[in-house]
Specification:
There is one protein chain. It is globular, with a radius of gyration of 21 Å. The protein has about 350 residues and is α/β, with parallel strands linked by helices. Helix content is about 40%, strand content about 10%. The termini are far apart. The chain has 2 domains: about 180 residues, NAD(P)-binding Rossmann-like Domain (Rossmann fold), CATH 3.40.50; about 130 residues, Rossmann fold (3-Layer(aba) Sandwich), CATH 3.40.50.
Amino acid sequence: MSRKALVLGATGMVGTLITQRLQAEGWPVVIASRRAPTNGPAVPHVAVDLLDPADCRRAFATQTDITHVFYAGRAPHGEGGIESVADNLAMLVNAVEAIEAASPRLRHVHLVHGTKYYGNHLGTYKTPAEEDDPRPDSPNFYYDQQDYVVGRNAGWSWSVVRPPLVFDFTPGKPRNLVSVIAVYAAIRRELGLPFSFPGTETAYQCLAECAEAVHVAKASVWMASDEGCANQAFNISNGDIFRWEPMWHRFAGYFGMEVGSPLGISLAETMPEHAPVWDRIAAERGLHPTPYEDMALWNYADYVFRPTWDIVSDTTKARQFGFHDVVKSQTMFFNLFDRYRQARLIP
């Protein structure tokens, strides 16, 4: 039976790579977002405001042959706080119900969520987290969106991917730990300071995990395509875990720096003043001109380095269902640092 995918939130990190993965596997694809992407794969685009149900009905009225929806959208939000449950649920509902009305061929809806599902942003929690763990008693739009697709009972199946921190090469988008770490290292070196972990000693010793965006995209297409994965949620990480201390030493080796003691500081409070230092580095090293604020989102770095508890998910279920790919996280980081260097975005 023929398939056609609609990717919502297609200009984001994971949405972009889901689109690329679908194209690589030969799927016809349409993408939807407020604004057309300025880069990425050439693909038909539908402009839509997912918060507006009438605009969704207008935008999707001609999409009569969609079989699979990949939903990677998020409502506008700040860093580290509770994201709007009402807005995120409304966006999904508006999109799905408009597509249902337009396409009688709809067979599957896939949601891109994350391991915040387990409350790993709230404090110490049960690790390794498993897909059927009880939900924390805290607002989270993941719960409302999943409950919606589970309860919709409209003749299509669903799946959910739950990755931890996701990384990729995203020039001009500062919410990426890869560019954050590289800019932090460059400024510390320029100031004659060691490459010190910004968080506390306790955080330095905690277990962590992450996921490469291309890995998450491959897993998303797999679970949406495999009928055996219907109506299931899956944790997807790179497949390894690490402590920040040994990983930080490897980063230091990559950048040719000495490691200092953990600082226990807020980068959002201490790094904005160093914009002139970055501008000087960029000019002296002939880097591609990029505003400091487009290289590093320091609030996001604080969110990543703040936890003083382990963050680990169990990915056994995905392997049992047939997804066996893994990524070495150190290799992922080094490859992404290389890509930023090759693009002359970091020294």
